[in-house]
Structures are given as structure tokens and as C-alpha cells.
Amino acid sequence: MLNIAVFCSGEGTNLQAIIEAVQRGDIKARLSLVVSDNKEAPALQRAKKAAVKTIFLDPQEFPSREEFEKELIAYLQEENIGLIVLAGFMRVLSPFFVQKYPNKIFNIHPSLLPAFKGSTNAVRDALNYGVKFSGATVHFVDEKIDNGPIVLQRVVEIEEDDNEESLRQKIHHQEHIIYPLAIKLFAEGRLKVKGRKVKINPKPQ
Ligand code: GAR
Q1: Per the CATH hierarchy, to which homologous superfamily does domain 1-101 belong?
Q2: C-alpha to C-alpha distance for 125 and 128, rounded to whole angstroms
């Protein structure tokens, strides 16, 4: 069975959606590890409540990003992780790390990529830009930020009375649908990556 690790820095509402999809049996995989670079992340409590193993790694305790990532990789290897899910992990993984897991890392970004690529507050940026539609994107991680092949996207309409909080909620709602779905498709071996394109194969009969 596929072993999954979820990396979080904050609230962990996407993690919660994933936990529930695994518990329901929608995702046929084991949630083996939740990693955080923030000791206070509510995501860690959500994982503990669901009896998922957690690890807190303080980047400041390592002399370099590579040393931090080497330690991370050791934990991932110990659990035989086959898919890494970045869910609000506000840290950029280096090419050194990404090359160890080609097409085995997912990220979710709160915009319709490539719009607001690289933004640390894509919800606010979309609102300030005045776009009429935004959304959420699940993509594979490659060596560039918010750049890898797109797996799933969902559109959200921005209405005149929307503010940052209401738009964030609308986008979160869509994220909580597409992230578990993307993981389910991966676990079923139905995602085929060719260049920038991700083909979703039908479920075998
Ligand atoms: C999510 O909206 C995710 O798209 C965003 O952080 C939020 C985490 O929420 N990620 C990024 O902005 C990455 N650049 P959560 O902790 O409640 O899942």
C-alpha cells in the first residue's frame, strides 16, 4: 500500500480533508507521517488526534537547507514514503530534495496557476488585482516554484462583496475537494505525466 507524508506549516484544513478521505476509505493509502517546520502548527494537533505519526523539524537547528532536507529524507525513507503532499507548507524544497522524488510530490496553491505563481498570499493578490475568477490548483512539484504539471484545478468566482476572508473560504472549500481527489487518483495509479500534461486514466473495470 502507498505510504503518504503530508507537510504542513499552519492550520491544516487540507490535511484534515485528507485524513477524513483516508478514514472513509476513499483514498486507498496509508497516511504514515505528518511533517511540520512549525512547532505550533494546529496541523500537528489534527494529525495527533487522528493517531498519525508527527515530526517537527526546526530548520533553524540545521546549518543549511541541504542538511535539513537530508534529515527529512531519512524520516521519509524510514516510512517508505511514496507520495509527499505539501499542504500549506511554506518552505521551498531545493532541487536536491525534489530530484529524490520525481513526480512524487504534490503541492496545492490557492490560485489558478500560472496566475499568482510564487505568491505567498495568492488570495489577497488575486483580490487586489481585480480578477473575476480565481481558484485552486493541485500540481506536481518540480524544481521551479509553483511550476510543475497541473493535476486538477477548480474555479471560484470573485463577487463584488468578497473580501480576503470570504475568498479564502471559497478557495479552501474547493481545495478540500480536489486535494483528496488528486491523492486518490495517484494512489490508484491513474495519473500519467507526459511533459507538462497530466493524463487521468479511467478506472479499470
Ligand atoms: C492553502 O490554501 C494552500 O493552498 C496554501 O496555504 C493554505 C493552507 O491551508 N498554500 C500556499 O499558499 C502555498 N504557496 P491549510 O493549512 O488550512 O491546509
Answers
A1: Formyl transferase, N-terminal domain (3.40.50.170)
A2: 5
Instruction: Please count the residues of the chain.
Output: 205
CB 167 within 8 A of CB 173: no
Task: Return the C-alpha cell found at 178.
Answer: 480536489
CA of 112 to the centre of ligand 1 (A): 13
Domains in the chain: boundaries: 1-101, 108-205
In angstroms, what is the span from residue 38 Cα to ligand 1's centroid?
Answer: 14
pLDDT in tens, 16-29: 999 999 999 999 99
Does 109 qualify as catalytic in the annotation? Answer: yes
User: Residues 115-153: pLDDT tens digits?
Assistant: 999 999 999 999 999 999 999 999 999 999 999 999 999
Q: Looking at domain 108-205, which CATH architecture does it have?
A: 3-Layer(aba) Sandwich (3.40)
Please indicate whether residue 14, judged by its CB atom, sits closer than 6 Å to ligand 1.
yes
